[in-house]
Design brief:
Blueprint: H1 2-23, H2 44-69, H3 80-105, H4 112-118, H5 123-150, H6 156-172, H7 177-196, H8 199-219
Length: about 220
C-alpha cells in the first residue's frame, strides 16, 4: 500500500509539475505585442499590469507547491562565492555551445517580434521577464520541483538527463537545432543545481544566460 501511495503521489506531482510548467509562461505574454499593437501603438499600462499581477500570483502558487515538496530554501547563504562562480562558468559555457550550434545551422535565430519589442517601450518589460521573472519561476519549477523533489530518488545522472531533455523539448517543441541549443542550457542548469544544491545560483545562471542572448541578438 505504501508503494502504491508513493507511486500515486509521484504521478499527481508530475501532473502538477506539467501544469505549472505551462502557467509560468503567462507573465511572458506581455513581453511582446498584443493584437493590433505596433512599436508606436502600445498599451503600456496593460502590459505592466499583466506582468506585475500575473508574476505575483503565479509566484505564490509555485512557491506554495515548492515549499510543500522541497524543504530547502531558494537562496542558500553558504558557499555563495563558489556557487555563483560556477553559475557564471556554466552560463558562459552553455552560451558558447549554443552559439556554435547556431553557427552550424547557418541561420538567423532572432525572433523578429521580440526584436521589434526590444526597440520599443516594451524593452524594460522584456528585459525584466528574460533576466528576472522567467529564470526565477522556471528554476523553481524545473530544478526545485521536478529535479529536486519529484526525481530526488532517481540516480543523479538520470535526473539530470530527464530534466534537461524535458526542458529542451518544452521550449523547443520538436527535433531541431533550437531544441539542441536549449538542451545545452537545460544540462547546465541541471548540473549546476546538482553541484551547488542552490536554486539561487541556478536562477542567476539562467538570468545571465538570457541576458547574454538578449545583448547579442537584440542589442549588438
Amino acid at each position: 500500500m505504501k508503494i502504491l501511495k508513493k507511486i500515486t503521489n509521484k504521478v499527481l506531482y508530475l501532473c502538477l509539475f506539467m501544469i505549472l510548467s505551462i502557467i509560468i509562461q503567462i507573465p511572458t505574454i506581455s513581453e511582446g505585442f498584443f493584437g493590433g499593437e505596433s512599436s508606436k501603438n502600445i498599451n503600456l499600462f496593460l502590459h505592466v499590469a499583466i506582468t506585475f499581477f500575473s508574476t505575483i500570483i503565479i509566484f505564490l502558487i509555485v512557491y506554495t507547491v515548492y515549499h510543500r515538496l522541497n524543504s530547502k530554501p531558494i537562496f542558500v547563504k553558504n558557499n555563495i562565492i563558489r556557487s555563483y562562480s560556477f553559475a557564471v562558468v556554466f552560463a558562459l559555457l552553455s552560451q558558447i555551445l549554443q552559439f556554435a550550434i547556431t553557427a552550424l545551422e547557418k541561420g538567423n535565430d532572432r525572433d523578429l517580434e521580440l526584436l521589434a519589442a526590444s526597440q520599443s517601450k516594451l524593452a524594460p518589460i522584456l528585459i525584466i521577464a528574460l533576466v528576472l521573472i522567467s529564470p526565477l519561476l522556471e528554476t523553481m519549477v524545473w530544478q526545485g520541483i521536478l529535479q529536486g523533489s519529484i526525481l530526488k530518488d532517481v540516480p543523479p545522472l538520470f535526473s539530470i538527463i530527464i530534466t534537461s531533455v524535458l526542458f529542451a523539448f518544452a521550449h523547443g517543441y520538436s527535433f531541431n537545432y533550437k531544441t539542441l541549443e536549449l538542451l545545452c542550457s537545460g544540462i547546465s542548469y541541471a548540473v549546476l543545481y546538482y553541484v551547488t544544491d542552490d536554486l539561487g545560483s541556478v536562477v542567476f545562471c539562467h538570468g545571465l544566460s538570457n541576458l547574454i542572448v538578449y545583448l547579442i541578438y537584440f542589442v549588438f
